[in-house]
User: What shape does this take?
Amino acid sequence: MLGLLLPVALAADPAATLADMDWDAATEEVAHVLAHYLQADTTNPPGNETVGAQVLARVLAAEGIPSEIWEPEPGRGNLIARLPATAPDGEGALCLLSHLDVVTSEPERWHPDHPPLSGHIAPDDDGVLSVWGRGALDMKGLGAMELMTLVWLKRLGVPLSRDVVLIAVSDEEVYNTGAQMLAEQRLPELGCSHVLNEGGLGVEGALFEGQTLFPISVGEKGALWVRMVATGAPGHGSVPRPGEAPQRLIAAMNALNAYDPDPVFHPALVELLDAAGEAQGGAPGFVMTHPALARGLLRGTLMANPATRATLIDTVHITGMEGANEPNVVPSEVAALLDCRLLPDTTPEQMLARLEALVDDPEVRFEVISAQQGNVSAWRGDPLYDALARHIAATWPEAAVGPYVSVGFTDSIYLRPHGVQAFGMMPVSVPPELLETMHGDDERMPVEELGKGLRVVLSVVIEVAGAEDS
Assistant: This one.
């Protein structure tokens, strides 16, 4: 699979070693690794992540790096591999986390020459050489970068002050059982103090034309999934009566749709806007570097855009409905499914009480499906966060880099309660239209960005976990 053993004379200074590497060959190699990885069908459901873990394990074995495929359930494998510290300084392990599973796809909607499991390396319609396949962006691309980071640490003989652990888990896309079981059963032995995971990536023109915004995920909003059930007397569809369950449910949904809370500017968002404004300069930059002005002048714009609005408020999203299927039957019970995403300072209990107050109907009850408190890692002065920000800025000079609280949650949310500093970033720069292929059609990773991302991840790991070569 690899076949590209790149000869590099080991330098006393790892940074000098990286500068001397043949990065064109290293990029070609990681692209081929990703291509093989994408061909392993880990679509979830059903998952079958073990086949993906086996791809990674074979790459590691070829380099003499042992690994474990931990399989709590048949076929639902999780991969763990460790490079031990050569000069331990007592710090916890730096863990490189990814997930093996990918979401479903509709092959008939994809480019006819590059179906979801193709792993083809071919130009897109704009001539950009890319690796095609479901999971290229979410998140086998970062998984390949992290895998090859471990490989290059071993090849280069980089002295380590702390263990570097590669972790690839199952079932992130549906129930997060891989990360939850890892946190409950394996985290103490892994010894992770810091984790690099998915969560952010560079988006070209996200705020300003010509600027790429790199939001490093330092935390995630929480999630409260609820079944809102309305009850009433059943009856025949020919005779409408007041107080029937469907009418109560409609009234409850109208009350929730009218929910319009004031925006909350989390400190991470303020810092991200400041970074973007400082990089941009001029009048727009001046506004964004002054929080009071930004709150006043940008509030309407940010609240009008669904994506940015979700960063500022606790959201309530009606995602489905349940009830009788017969048009002439009035059921005694109907329900709506709610996906509520909560700012880190909002608890699920507080949000549940808010829902009950908004609906204010004793015949409507709320059944909690699942609840997860949001959380945030302290990013200021953290060595992993600082290294990520610095190397991203050095690689993409037009970049603005800052912290961000993700509106969706990743596996990191299960690790932070155990004292782990977890940050999310896949260091690549993509246009907005390519970002839309994540969970969409024609997902692909530009090969050039994949190579840049590998260099950033390897540089960051050497800075955070490297030891002085005595």
The longest strand covers residues 192-204. The radius of gyration is 24 Å.
